[in-house]
Each structure stands twice: as C-alpha cells, then as structure tokens.
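Quick one: structure tokens for this chain, please?
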Amino acid sequence: MSMPRHPHVLNSSPPSPDDDLTLQVGERGFRTVLALTGEIDIGNSDVLARRLTAEIDRTGPGREVVVDLSSVQFCAAAGITALLDVHRHCRDRRTPLVFTGAAGQVLQVIRLTRADEVLPLALIGS
C-alpha cells in the first residue's frame, strides 16, 4: 500500500476546486509512487513536469518510480508532452519508470498521440 508523504496542489491559479491537479508522493516497497489526481492541461502541465522531475531527483539511485494516472480524469496534449519530458528525464538519469492506471480519455490521448510507443505503460486488461 502506498502511504502518501505529502500532497501538492499543482495548479498555480485554479479556477475552481474541480480543476485542481494534485500529486501525492509515497513509497511502495522499493518504489517511489507519484499519484496524480485531477486534470492535466496546458495550465498545469509545465508545473507538473517540474514537480515530477523534482520528486524523481529526490529518489535514490536505481529506485523505480511509478507515476499513477488512475485518478486523472483528463489529459490534454500538453499533459502528454509533460509525461514524455518526465520519461526522458528518467531515461537520462537511468531511473526505472513506469506509468500505471491510464484509462478512459487519458489512455485514448496517449494512444492517439502514439505516446504509448514511447512511454513505459503498465496496463491492466489490455
């Protein structure tokens, strides 16, 4: 079970509580889990990439990072760019990375942009 260390609100100026994107950081065994909740759009994608990168930089060498997308309801193309930036950062740093929980609209956008050919996805039932 993942135990959150600290939540972060990622939107710099959210128009409403429903539009917040939050990040919870926790551990599960030898993995760092970065769990996202909300919507990823052009208004928060840059902040998201910076926050995920900062959390990844805090992990120990060789520690796997899991980005949990199961509570993300919407992801714009800018969000896919942020996820690809995080993937490149992990690759350059030689940090094992996997994205989990992508479903519905989020998975559809990942597939439409062909990001599924690059991002390490763990999909259940696919």
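The radius of gyration is 13 Å.
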